[in-house]
């Protein structure tokens, strides 16, 4: 009566099609929760009414923890628990439809069958399958009703990330690659390497039915702080011993390197790398996720919704205090419901894997409900005060006397932080502005009311703040105004031409001592190298406006530039008898372009030639030229090609072959680097036909 080892047909193709998992490249059943899948078992013995199934996951499966389910064959599916329904039988095989509940724990399961017929029972292990979140199922916490959004935020392997600064938004492509190779297994091992798992494996696994929990754990695991996670951050401007953060073009190489090295943190990342890797991992597991870029993003280290910046008398931006305003910062939004907070806080949730501040003793951030941020309900879980400050903090600029430590407030701004909050459009490569989803219109009464409400919730509204400016200091109006205007093109390799415009706002003559500096910075506006300084004494007649041309030569900045291509120019104006005026501009220089040409039709499984064209725009030789190419469905892994040095003005054409393995629209990403230009990026969409 005992069964011989039964064989199982997992119906991989049909199940994958029904569960939107066809893009995965591993030979294992991968299905989504809250939806039936079909298997056929041969040789499980008769009658099939006696078959009992056990599905279990994690190191200590238990019914109580919902990591084990035991179920027989019933006449109808149960929505609340695991169940099986008979589809058809033959003399020695039985086809069964297995249904998992919409709140089942996700991860790799073992499926066991028992037959208890005629007094003896026998057990057989049928193998494993992987269960994922299901945004297509209305019972799931991650249910996303719009099918086009499911396609983009779960199934799309290509993305566009926005960067630059508020004056100059640029963007680059990224290969998320969540369905490639071993990525699913790496994502599952990230969960199994988290601190929560080490502390209590059984409890950790039992919480993996909850996207809030999974998102929070992974926001900690993507950075290497605390837990030997995936990526090590580095914002110094010097990246020895690893890869420069701006050189990556996709998450696959990073996740695979982490696994290959025996799970040692991959060097190095900055915010968009953490966000892109988290996007890959969450999309892989089935949680709809996108990257968000916030321009002029505040890092408020002390939870007072205020960022203080300090400048010395020469106009140097001082590295003082933990607060800063980044040119941009990239984080994630994931879509799920918040049963813990109530329906009005469901929808997009902010997660941030960049290690900025600890949350509950660990570098992680979120999920913070985007609606809670907009409404100023920052006492709600998780980490709302930090995210609220990123888009709303007021900014105070201080003159700091390095001889005696005296601070003098120059001016404050309440509308600088949190601008042009951007994400990629659904189904298109365009930028969509979501600033209005984070806050009410700047300057509106509603926006100030929300800010006051948030301050009150943090207990800031009635505290005496010793560093706050006294009314006397702030009432004094500046006598002059200033701004930097750009004259000419902002390109790496060209001289930088600016105009400092100063205007006398009063009806008296004014004498102004202007101290100017320029330094290269990282995108966080952290100064790295001084490039240039100058000072000039100016007399302005009543109401007069004067222009001062400034030129910084390429030869002056070339050695000092970091791969961020960012220069901060500052003029600190000391007005006789008046308050100091700070004029500042962050300038981003564009790299030269690179051109991709596909030579012929791209056909499935057929080689096609691609050519990448680069012209050296400067009048000196460039060396150490390397071209990096990747693209899901177009080539396996990453192609790296060394390109010969290029003389001044010389054009290089680099040819290589790709063999498309998937049909449809695919993206080819290239990254070109040399000693004078870092990480010039381009991408090309290729339509692969049969």
UniProtKB/TrEMBL annotation:
It is an enzyme of class 2 (transferase). The active site is at residues 271, 329, 352. Residues 263-355 form the Transglutaminase-like domain. Ca(2+) binds at residues 392, 394, 442, 447. PROSITE patterns: TRANSGLUTAMINASES. This is protein-glutamine gamma-glutamyltransferase. It comes from Nothoprocta ornata. Keywords: Acyltransferase, Calcium, Metal-binding, Transferase. InterPro entries: Ig-like_fold, Ig_E-set, Papain-like_cys_pep_sf, Transglutaminase, Transglutaminase-like, Transglutaminase-like_sf, Transglutaminase_animal, Transglutaminase_AS. Belongs to the transglutaminase superfamily. Transglutaminase family. Its cofactor is Ca(2+). It catalyses: L-glutaminyl-[protein] + L-lysyl-[protein] = [protein]-L-lysyl-N(6)-5-L-glutamyl-[protein] + NH4(+). It holds the Pfam family Transglut_core. Binds 1 Ca(2+) ion per subunit. Transmembrane segments: none annotated. Its EC number is 2.3.2.13. GO terms for molecular function: metal ion binding; protein-glutamine gamma-glutamyltransferase activity. It comes from the Eukaryota.
């Amino acid at each position: 009566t005992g069964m011989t080892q039964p064989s199982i047909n997992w119906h991989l193709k049909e199940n994958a099609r029904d569960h939107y998992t066809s893009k995965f490249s591993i030979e294992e059943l991968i299905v989504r929760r809250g939806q039936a899948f079909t298997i056929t078992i041969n040789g499980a013995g008769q009658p099939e009414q006696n078959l009992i199934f056990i599905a279990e996951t994690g190191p200590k499966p238990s019914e109580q923890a919902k990591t084990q389910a035991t179920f027989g064959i019933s006449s109808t599916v149960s929505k609340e628990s695991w169940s099986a329904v008979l589809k058809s039988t033959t003399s020695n095989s039985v086809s069964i439809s297995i249904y998992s509940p919409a709140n089942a724990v996700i991860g790799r399961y073992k499926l066991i069958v028992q037959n208890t017929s005629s007094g003896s029972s026998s057990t057989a292990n049928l193998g494993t399958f992987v269960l994922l979140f299901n945004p297509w199922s209305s019972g799931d916490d991650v249910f996303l009703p719009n099918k086009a959004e499911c396609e983009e935020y779960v199934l799309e392997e290509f993305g566009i990330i926005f960067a630059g600064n508020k004056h100059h938004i640029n963007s680059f492509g990224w290969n998320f690659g969540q369905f490639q190779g071993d990525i699913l297994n790496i994502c599952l091992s990230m969960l199994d390497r988290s601190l929560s798992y080490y502390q209590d494996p059984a409890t950790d696994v039992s919480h993996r039915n909850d996207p809030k929990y999974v998102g929070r754990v992974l926001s900690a695991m993507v950075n290497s702080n605390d837990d030997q996670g995936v990526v090590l951050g580095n914002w110094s401007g010097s990246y020895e011993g690893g890869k420069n953060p701006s050189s990556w073009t996709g998450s696959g190489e990073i996740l695979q390197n982490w696994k290959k090295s025996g799970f040692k943190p991959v060097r190095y990342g900055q915010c968009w790398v953490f966000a892109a890797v988290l996007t890959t991992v969450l999309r892989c597991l089935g949680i709809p996720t996108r990257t968000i870029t916030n321009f002029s993003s505040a890092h408020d280290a002390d939870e007072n919704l205020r960022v203080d910046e300090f400048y010395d008398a020469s106009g140097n931006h001082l590295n003082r205090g933990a607060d800063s305003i980044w040119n941009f910062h990239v984080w994630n939004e994931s879509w799920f419901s918040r049963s813990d907070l109530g329906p009005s806080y469901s929808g997009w949730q902010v997660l941030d894997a960049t290690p900025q501040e600890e949350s509950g003793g660990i570098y992680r951030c979120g999920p913070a409900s985007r609606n809670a941020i907009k409404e100023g309900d920052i006492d709600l879980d998780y980490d709302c005060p930090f995210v609220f400050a990123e888009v709303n903090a007021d900014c105070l600029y201080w003159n700091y006397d390095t001889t005696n430590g005296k601070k003098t407030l120059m001016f404050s701004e309440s509308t600088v932080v949190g601008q042009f909050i951007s994400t990629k459009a659904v189904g298109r490569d365009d930028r969509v502005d979501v600033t209005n989803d984070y806050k009410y219109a700047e300057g509106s009464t509603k926006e100030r009311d929300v800010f006051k409400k948030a301050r009150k919730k943090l207990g800031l509204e009635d505290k005496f703040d010793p560093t706050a400016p006294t009314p006397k200091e702030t009432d004094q109006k500046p006598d002059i105004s200033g701004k930097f205007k750009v004259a000419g093109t902002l390109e790496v390799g060209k001289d930088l031409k600016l105009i400092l415009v100063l205007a006398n706002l009063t009806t008296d003559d004014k004498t102004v001592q202007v101290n100017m500096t320029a330094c290269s910075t990282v995108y966080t506006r952290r100064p790295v190298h001084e490039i240039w300084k100058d000072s000039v004494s100016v007399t302005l007649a009543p109401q007069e406006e004067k222009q001062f041309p400034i030129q910084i030569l390429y030869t002056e900045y070339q050695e000092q530039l970091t791969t961020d291509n960012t220069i901060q120019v500052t003029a600190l104006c000391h007005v006789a008898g008046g308050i100091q005026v700070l004029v500042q501009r962050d300038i981003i220089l564009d790299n030269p372009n690179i051109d991709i040409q596909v030579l012929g039709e791209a056909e499935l499984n057929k080689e096609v030639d691609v050519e990448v064209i680069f012209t050296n725009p400067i009048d000196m030789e460039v060396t150490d030229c390397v071209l990096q190419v990747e693209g899901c469905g177009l080539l396996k892994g990453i192609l790296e090609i060394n390109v010969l040095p290029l003389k001044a003005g010389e054009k290089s054409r680099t040819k290589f072959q790709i063999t498309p393995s998937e049909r449809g629209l695919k993206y080819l990403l290239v990254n070109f680097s040399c000693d004078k230009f870092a990480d010039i990026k381009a991408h090309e969409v290729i339509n692969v036909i049969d």
